[in-house]
Prior knowledge:
By secondary structure, this protein is α+β, with helices and mostly antiparallel strands. The protein contains 18 helices and eight strands. The chain has three domains: about 1-65 and about 220-320, Tetratricopeptide repeat domain (Serine Threonine Protein Phosphatase 5, Tetratricopeptide repeat, Alpha Horseshoe); about 70-160 and about 175-215, C8orf32 fold (Roll), CATH 3.10.620; about 325-405, Tetratricopeptide repeat domain (Serine Threonine Protein Phosphatase 5, Tetratricopeptide repeat, Alpha Horseshoe).
Amino acid sequence: MWVITFQQYGVCNKGFNQLTQAMLPLLIMLTLFLSLLGCQSRSAVVQSMDVESLFHDELFIATEIISPEQIYSLPSSYIAQIKQAYSRDNTTQHRKMPIHSWLAQYIGAQNGGFEYRDHYTRPASETAISRQGNCMSLVVLSAALADIFSIPVEFQDIDVEPVWDKRGGFYLVNGHVNLFLVAATDANTVSFRDNKILIDFLPERAVRGFSQKRVNKQTLTAMYYNNIAAEALVEQQYDLAYALIKQAIRMDPSFIASINTLAVIYRHKGDDEKAEQAYRTALLLDKEDVTTLFNLALILGEQDRLDEWAAVHKILELHRINNPFYYYDMAQQAYFEQHYQEALVWYKRALEKADYRHEFYFGLSRTYWATGERRLAQKNMQKALALTGDVDDKRRYQIKLQAMKNW
């Protein structure tokens, strides 16, 4: 099995590696979040790094990718359209609205003007037309629109509680980014209100309690490349994933997540030596980065380097219990071994960690059904049906729910 905790900026985007059945409780993480290592020490390490030595183009077919400029570019017709909209709205209003306030209303992320779509990272030009995407897509579009009107922006990485997902044999952990539109400053004007306006799917009060880190546009762009590289990996487009992650690392070599993603790609190629080199490089940036340690532990275990593995595993053991899919996998095993009471305990623990996963409720439902608890089985099947967005899963749950009602 392959695992990503692919901190995709899509809550509202931590490293890859192969996982053997015996090692299922260990989670490999692909994180788009920055660690808390001091900026000065990391900067010194980056300056001494030979980034180009991490790349091995001979293993891949050269693939064309989107450029940083293309990520934020908008069609000229769209730019003309939005400028006309701003001009029109301000001629019909008694008081001219500050331009950053107008743009925030135009984007309308919290008022239904933008449809949230997880695992859907797209450039500004596509997002502008579809008006849908994850939080990374929203931030990229908002930055592009702000640039049209020369509105300053501030990008933020929000350390929200992890939201777990599973796609294509990978575990994923979704993270979150947003941005502020900042009022233009005038040397003759002092502004005390509405100096900054948050652009986010979530209201400001919802993220206020979480740690927030300012990032610059270059790091945000590296995050974007890491997002779409992870999406390419899920789709098994390995040459594309390599080209994208190479660009991400060149954009910001201090962004550990990208180095982890590169290592996962080498693992897929069967080259553990190059993967370990990448992991060791990431550990130079932060020797306690859990993502890197998770991934490195798999290589050490598979190569029977048990002393090294044990040292890493001491750090990882506490993190394992925070992974809801650890409990889910234990529940699945108990269910198929017909240890139903044990399975119920594990499914419930999984739901305590992630009560938004439809497959956890489905597992709980069929286990209750196996124990004769028909009412609870129907109740949990209804929850699974309500939570899933997949057409096939929805149809499957509807059929099973109807069968339960007709029993």
